[in-house]
Amino acid sequence: MITISPGHWLIGTGAKDLLDEVTEARRVAKRVTEILRKGGVQTNYIEDNVSKNKKQNLACLVTQHNKTARQLDVSVHFNASSGRQMKGIGTEVLYYDKKDLAAKVSKAISSSSGLIDRGAKQRKELAFLAKTHKPAILLEICFVNSTVDTAIYNRDFEKICQAIAKELALTVGKQLGPSTTTTVEGNSGIAPTKDAPPS
């Protein structure tokens, strides 16, 4: 019902400051996938470990998403602004035409953690949102250069993942049961869909 992928390809190819975007996006995407699967929601997990540049990465992720049977596409990212920030900046969710869904997920992340809710932001030029064939949203969990955001994220990682999973499940007509707080660190046992070769 849902296909989820972390953004970018190899570690270090995304935003990097107090957190590494690729590392944390994979951590969130795997945990949300795990929660959804345990709750009975069919969820595909895709991870790109083959691309050599941004163009290949976007093509790979879009192609792999479009190969899966699903109702919803989700991409997990972390945001960044210039310089180290000692204030909270917040979470936001980008969308092509699903403003209400993006707003709900952004609010869920904020409400579960205390991250500032920057809300839904339309971005029609982003390849992931424009070229996937199903409704799609792109999560920007928090800002990797904000000391406040990263502290909240580290503290409330599980709450954030549970909130995302709950909202995504509702979107495809499912309701998750009591949450599980059993977090699998390191190898989650979630195998990604076979990567497409670089295009």
Can you walk through the features of this model?
It is a single chain. Mean pLDDT is 92; it is low at 183-188 and 194-199. The two termini are 27 Å apart. By secondary structure, the chain is of the alpha/beta class. The chain contains five helices and six strands, in the order βαβαββαβαβα. The chain has a six-stranded mixed sheet with strand order 2-1-3-6-4-5.
Looking at this protein, list some descriptive labels.
5 helices, alpha/beta, 199 residues, 39% helix, single chain, disordered C terminus, 6-stranded mixed β-sheet
Strand order of the largest sheet: 2-1-3-6-4-5
Shape: globular
**Percent helix range:** 25-40%
> What does the largest sheet look like?
6 strands, mixed
The poorly predicted ranges are: 183-188, 194-199
Number of strands: 6
Structural class by sheet pairing and helices = alpha/beta
What is the succession of H and E elements? EHEHEEHEHEH
Distance between the termini: 27 Å
Strand content: 15-25%
- Alpha-carbon Rg, integer: 15 Å
The tally of helices reads 5
